[in-house]
DUF4229 domain-containing protein
Amino acid sequence: MNVAKPSATVRYTAMRVAVFVGCLVFVALLVHFKIVPAGLGDANAIWVVLLALVLSAPLSFVLLRKQRDEMSAQIVTKVESAKARLEANRSQEDGAAG
């Protein structure tokens, strides 16, 4: 049975979302237990989301370096392949036209 390996981009994105959700839960708990201020007035949800974004960005940068490198390599390979196909098509058209 051949199981397809998920693309590096999908894997990286899923892990990035997981890091954000983890930060979101962490920040929500900190706000709930009044360790971190709850924001101004009705801005509580926005405050929690923004703080989670600020925390998850550097964490993702450090923790997901390997996955980001794999995704980048996969994208470069696909772009080079597309360029090679385009060049091959051009040379066939030039040969047929001449």
Q: What stands out?
A: The chain has one domain: 8-97. Helices lie at 8-32, 44-63, 65-97. Residues 65-97 form the longest helix (33 residues). The chain is about 80% helix and 0% strand.
